[in-house]
């Protein structure tokens, strides 16, 4: 289908955000889509290509995941200064002072970014970055270093990570090479295969496991590998 229409229920975000502001943020990130007016019940019609709508859906799921992760951190750190979340904030993963931010990424995209765009996470001493991985999602925590004056630096790093991840999310593809449980005699051939992939396809991320190899990269490079 060249174009499909979907109805988004944005009311699930209304307790945390001003929906009109959130819709404007979504429109900026999804320029290939057409949006209808926001209905009183929180529904909004969206029209565009299926891949573009799928990207929008995934973006909103990450937003919801970010909110859930923030709630968990608030509960686990109740003895510390709580993060204040006010309704007028357009971002679900920031505290009132902009000192802490959360970015939820697809784990494959995160690993690719760490390998091929390491500077995205190598910022100066103004920002402390940590991460936790839970299956298909990796949560990146950004926090302003104590005593540093520029709270806006944390937000700028967050936006840089989000911008890079959005570009990669639509460009990357993962191919799984099943090899079965290799015996001791086949271990050397397994290492040679991994080395061959890494040397002949330097722009692909090769992740070896006991029973398979995951290869992550741009679609054109994955197709070249399969051929």
N/C terminus separation: 28 Å
Task: Report the radius of gyration as a whole number of Å.
Answer: 20 Å
Q: Examine the coordinates and then state which fold CATH places here, giving the name of the CATH topology of one domain.
A: Ribosomal Protein S8, Chain: A, domain 1
Characterize the largest beta sheet: strand count, sense, and whether it forms a barrel.
3 strands, antiparallel
CATH class term of one domain: Alpha Beta
**Class of secondary structure makeup:** alpha+beta
CATH architectural grouping of one domain = 2-Layer Sandwich
Beta strand %:
15-25%
Number of helices: 6
Shape: globular
Helix content: 25-40%
Write down the secondary-structure element order: EHEEHEHEEHEHEEH
Order of strands, widest sheet: 1-3-2
| DSSP summary, beta strand count | 9
Low-confidence sequence ranges? 75-96
Q: What's the overall average pLDDT, rounded?
A: 75
Which helices and strands occur, and which strands form pairs?
Blueprint: E1 4-9, H1 19-29, E2 34-35, E3 43-48, H2 50-76, E4 100-106, H3 107-116, E5 127-134, E6 137-144, H4 152-171, E7 172-178, H5 187-200, E8 205-208, E9 212-218, H6 219-226
Antiparallel strand pairs: 1-3, 2-3, 4-6, 5-6, 7-9, 8-9
Account of the 3D structure:
Helix content is 40%, strand content 24%. The chain is α+β, with helices and mostly antiparallel strands. Among the domains are: 1-77, Ribosomal Protein S8, Chain: A, domain 1, CATH 3.30.1370; 172-226, Alpha-Beta Plaits (2-Layer Sandwich). The strands form 3 sheets. It has a 3-stranded antiparallel beta sheet with strand order 1-3-2, covered by helices on one side. A hairpin with a 7-residue loop joins strand 2 and strand 3 (43-48). The longest helix has 27 residues, at 50-76. The two termini are 28 Å apart. Residues 75-96 have low confidence and may be disordered.
């Amino acid at each position: 289908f060249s174009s499909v229409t979907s109805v988004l229920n944005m009311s699930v975000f209304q307790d945390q955000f001003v929906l009109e502001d959130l819709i404007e943020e979504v429109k900026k990130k999804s320029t290939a889509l057409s949006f209808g007016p926001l209905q009183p019940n929180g529904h909004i019609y969206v029209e565009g290509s299926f891949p573009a709508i799928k990207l929008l859906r995934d973006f909103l799921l990450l937003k919801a995941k970010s909110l859930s992760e923030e709630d968990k951190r608030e509960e686990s750190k109740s003895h510390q200064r709580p993060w204040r979340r006010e309704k007028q904030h357009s971002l679900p993963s920031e505290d009132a002072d902009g000192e802490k931010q959360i970015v939820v990424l697809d784990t494959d995209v995160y690993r690719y970014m760490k390998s091929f765009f390491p500077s995205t996470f190598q910022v100066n001493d103004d920002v402390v970055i940590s991460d936790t991985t839970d299956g298909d999602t990796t949560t990146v925590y950004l926090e302003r270093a104590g005593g540093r004056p520029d709270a806006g630096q944390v937000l700028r790093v967050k936006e840089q990570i989000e911008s890079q991840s959005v570009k990669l999310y639509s460009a990357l593809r993962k191919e799984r090479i099943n090899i079965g449980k290799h015996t001791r005699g086949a271990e050397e051939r397994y290492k040679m295969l991994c080395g061959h992939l890494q040397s002949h396809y330097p722009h692909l991320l090769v992740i070896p496991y006991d029973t398979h190899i995951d290869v992550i990269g741009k679609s054109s490079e994955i197709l070249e590998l399969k051929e």
